[in-house]
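Work Package 4 report. The design task specified in the project plan requires that, given a folded chain encoded as structure tokens, an amino acid be chosen for each position. We show below one input record used in the internal validation round.
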């Protein structure tokens, strides 16, 4: 049974939802968040935690071997849930270096630290240990319209610096299982959405811009397809894999839906029209602008989640319509959060550059 859980990247979008989930569902667990607080991470995401006495925040870099070694020893870490990463495809196109550093080198350092603490140093921990690596469906590449969804045995074919760096990290994690018998699990998940998502990603960006009467930028023809999963469902799936998944195994996680990007944007506009009937920007879909496409833009992702359903009995609780509505409501109730995140990061400058390059002005 997990006692001391190290959550890397716990001040980011999914990581902070996961920290909350753990504190709410596992009363015996101590949670240690390690996060560098890059532009994408914020202490704002960890405010008002349930039972905060069981949570410790450590600001630091997963590439820092001596810091990692100290954390494993001092806190007797028995479980790692590894979220920390550079995670935005568009930023990986303009600045790939940080992606290789954090996603590849950082994962390597974390594996080394776990190996040293769990397999080399005496005495061994009484409890079983687990290194869980959180990864993405993007490692599998892009599907054509009639192709079947990705399974756990789909060959890797990453096509952006982001997905290539995540693929490299997945391979390292598997290598540590086969070579050193480090007890690892991996999950590859589709696009997440929900509370605390950094507002440069599609769904929070569209909500924020629509509320403020700004352009809603849709890349290319907007017919790209993603499989969207509500973040709370992802957190639950990860914890099931940590607790009950078989070491050395990979589990695909997804929401089982395949809307186009344009459909997502139109749905968000319709929800906002309904929830903000007096908005001067209604109908919000009038703000949609088609802008230059992302280079190498993957056309379609879809996940086959049969394995995790069969073996661990997990399936998403939220459907896309209910999840999107909940998400819009959350952002409407947390405009202060969006403002403080925008002010505390490089978001405005980065967005101006990104969208000017695409012929838009988001
Ligand atoms: P995010 O960008 O919101 O958060 C990443 C966090 O990692 C931030 O808090 C950041 O400060 C921290 N971080 C970055 N570099 C670090 C370093 N060197 N040392 C310590 N901390 C560092 O990302 P997210 O969307 O929450 O994604 C979390 C994980 O889930 C990533 O590994 C990502 O690849 C994976 N994933 C994300 C999605 C998605 O849709 N967002 C889908 C599947 C998988
Ligand atoms: P994003 O949230 O960046 O996630 P990912 O690239 O990891 O899938 O983007 C989701 C989809 O939305 C992706 O196909 C790119 C597209 N997109 C837009 O059309 N406009 C935007 O302004 C952004 C940020 C993304």
């Amino acid at each position: 049974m997990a006692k001391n859980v190290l959550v890397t990247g716990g001040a980011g979008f999914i990581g902070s939802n996961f920290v909350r989930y753990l504190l709410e569902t596992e009363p015996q667990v101590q949670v240690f968040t390690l996060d560098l607080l890059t532009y994408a991470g914020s202490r704002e995401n960890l405010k008002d935690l349930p039972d905060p006495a069981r949570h410790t925040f450590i600001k630091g870099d997963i590439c820092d071997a001596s810091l990692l070694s100290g954390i494993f020893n001092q806190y007797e870490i028995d479980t790692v849930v590894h979220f920390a990463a550079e995670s935005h495809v568009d930023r990986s196109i303009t600045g790939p270096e940080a992606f290789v550093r954090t996603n590849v080198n950082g994962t390597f350092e974390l594996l080394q630290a776990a190996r040293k603490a769990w397999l080399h140093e005496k005495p061994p921990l009484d409890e079983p240990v687990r290194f869980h690596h959180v990864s993405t469906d993007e490692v599998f590449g892009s599907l054509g319209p009639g192709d079947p969804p990705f399974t756990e045995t789909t060959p890797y074919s990453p096509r952006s610096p982001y997905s290539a760096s995540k693929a490299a990290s997945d391979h390292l994690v598997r290598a540590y299982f086969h070579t050193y018998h480090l007890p690892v699990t991996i999950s590859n998940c589709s696009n997440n959405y929900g509370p605390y998502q950094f507002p440069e990603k599609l769904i929070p960006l569209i909500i924020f811009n629509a509320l403020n009467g700004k352009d809603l930028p849709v890349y290319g023809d907007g017919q790209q397809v993603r499989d969207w999963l509500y973040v709370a469902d992802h957190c639950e799936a990860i914890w099931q894999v940590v607790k009950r998944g078989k070491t050395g195994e990979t589990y695909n996680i997804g929401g089982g839906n395949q809307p186009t990007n344009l459909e997502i944007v139109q749905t968000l506009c319709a929800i906002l029209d309904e929830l903000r009937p007096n908005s001067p920007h209604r109908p919000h879909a009038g703000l949609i602008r088609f802008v230059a496409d992302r280079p190498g833009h993957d056309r379609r992702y879809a996940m086959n989640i049969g394995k995790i359903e069969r073996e661990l009995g997990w399936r998403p609780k939220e459907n896309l319509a209910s999840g999107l509505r909940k998400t819009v409501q959350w952002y409407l109730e947390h405009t202060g959060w969006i403002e403080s995140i925008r002010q505390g990061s490089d978001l405005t400058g980065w967005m101006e550059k990104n969208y000017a390059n695409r012929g838009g002005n988001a």
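The chain is about 45% helix and 15% strand. Validation will be extended to a larger panel in the next phase.
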